[in-house]
Amino acid sequence: MRVSVDPDRCVSAGQCVMLAPEVFDQDEDGIVTLLQSEPPAELHAVVRQTASLCPVRLIRITE
Amino acid sequence: MTQHHPAAEVPSSPALPDFPMRRTCPFSPPQRYAELREHEPVSQAVLKVTGRPAWLVTTHEHVKAVLGDSRVSSNLKLPGYPHQFPIPEEMLREVRLMLLSMDPPEHTAQRRYLIPEFTARRMRALRPRVQQIVDARIDAMLAQGGPVDLVAALALAVPSLVICELLGVPYEDHPQFEEWSALMMNHDISPQEYGAAVMALDSYLDKLVTAKQAAPGDDLISRFIEKNREDPIADHTDIVTMARLMLVGGHETTANMISLGVLGLLEHPEQLAAVQADPELLPGAVEELLRFFSISDSGTARVALEDIEVDGVVIKAGEGILPLNNSANHDESVFPDPDTLDIRRAEARSHLAFGYGIHQCIGQNLARIELEIVYGTLFRRIPGLKLAVPLSELRFKDEALVYGVHELPVTW
Prior knowledge:
The complex is a heterodimer.
Chain A: E1 2-5, H1 15-19, E2 24-26, E3 32-34, H2 44-53, E4 59-62
Antiparallel strand pairs in A: 1-4, 2-3
Chain B: H1 6-9, E1 18-19, H2 32-39, E2 42-47, E3 53-57, H3 60-67, E4 72-73, H4 89-94, H5 106-114, H6 120-144, E5 148-149, H7 150-155, H8 157-167, H9 174-184, H10 191-214, H11 220-230, H12 236-266, H13 269-277, H14 282-293, E6 302-304, E7 308-310, E8 313-315, E9 320-323, H15 325-328, H16 364-381, E10 386-387, E11 409-411
Helix pairs in contact in B: 6-8, 6-16, 8-12, 9-10, 10-12, 12-14, 12-16, 14-16
GO molecular function, one term (chain A): 3 iron, 4 sulfur cluster binding
Function (chain A): Ferredoxins are iron-sulfur proteins that transfer electrons in a wide variety of metabolic reactions.
Keywords (chain A): 3Fe-4S, Electron transport, Iron, Iron-sulfur, Metal-binding, Transport
C-alpha cells in the first residue's frame, strides 16, 4: 500500500490523525503531514478508513 | 365574514411536504425520511418559514456527494438559499458571512487562521482541563443532592466553560449569552426577536473584541486578531462574527448531545453497563450517539451554483438544497438496523453528524473529547444515576434548529 496526501486541500478535520497517528500528523498550522507513505499491513484497514472519512478526500491510496 | 381566496392559500405545489418535519419518536428521525430514502432520495419540500421549495437529499451517498461538491454554495445571501429560520430582509442584506456561510477562497483563509486551535495535539492537551471542569460540576451535583436538572448542572455548563476558556470569554457572563444563543437556535421566534438576539450577542462580543485588540490575552480570539494584524483577511465586524459562531457553535450543540447521550444510555441499561465496565468502549459509544441522535439538519443548507445532477435528478443553478445528515445517518444501506442504538456498531464513525466536505465541523474533536469525558465520568462517579421523572414527561426541542431536551431531571 502506498499513501499520498494533498495538503493544499486539508481542512484539518483531524480524523486521520485521531485514527492513525502512526501514519498521519498535523503541522503547527494544523495541516496534514504524512509520517509514512508505505504503512505496514496491520495498518492498512485503518488507513483505508481514514481515506473514506476524510471530508475532502485528500488521502490517496494505491494498492 | 372574510372572503375566501383559494388561490392565495394554496401553496405552489400542494403535493410537496413541509419542512422541517417533526420527529414522532424522540429517539428517531422523522418517519418520512425513511420513505424518502427508499422511494425518492432527492425530492422537493416546502420550507415552512418562507413557503419556498427546496430539495431534500436523504441518502448517505448523496448527502456526501452534495456536501463534497464545489458547485454548491453555503452563502446565505444568495437568492434561493433555503433559509430555515426567519431573518429580516434588511438584516440579511447587512449581515456578515460567517465561516459556516462562506465559500472559498474567503472560507479557506479564515478556516486556516482557526484550525491550529483545534489540532489533535491541542485537543489531547485540553483533556486534563476538561476532566477538571467535569469533575467540579459533578462535585457540585453530588453536594447539592438529587434531583437536579442535568441540562443546567452539567450539559450546558461544561461546554460553555470550555469554549469560554478557549475563546477568552468571561464565563461569569454566561447567563446572558446562553439566553441569546438559545433564542438564535429556536425555530419559532419572530424575525425581530431573532435579529434582536443576534444584535445583543454581537454588541457584547464587539466590546470583548475591542478590549482584546487593545490588550490581547492567551486565547483564540486574541490569536486571531494577531494573525489578522500581520496578514489582514477580516475587519472588526468579521472578527465579531467569527467569535459569535465559535461561542454559539461551541456550546449549544455539545450541550444538547450531552443531555441526549446521557438519556440514550439511561434508556439502554445493558449498553450503559458495558460502557461502565469497559471505558475503552467510550469512543465508539460517542460516535454511535452522535449518529443515533443527529441533532442538526440545519448547518448543511446549500444553494446550487450550477445545474448539478444527484441520483438522476437535475438540481438547477439557484435552487436550494438541504442535505439531511440526520437521514443519512439512518441510511440502512450503511448502518444496518439504523434506529437501534448499538454502541459497538463498527461503522458508526461513518456518520455525518459533523457534516462533510470543506465545512465539516471545525470543533468536532473538541466535542468528542467533551462527550467522552462527560459520559465516562458521570456514570463512573454516579453509577446509580436515573431519570427523576418518567420519560414521557420530558420536553424535547422539536422547535429548535438543534435538537435536544429542555430539562433532564435526574437523581441517584
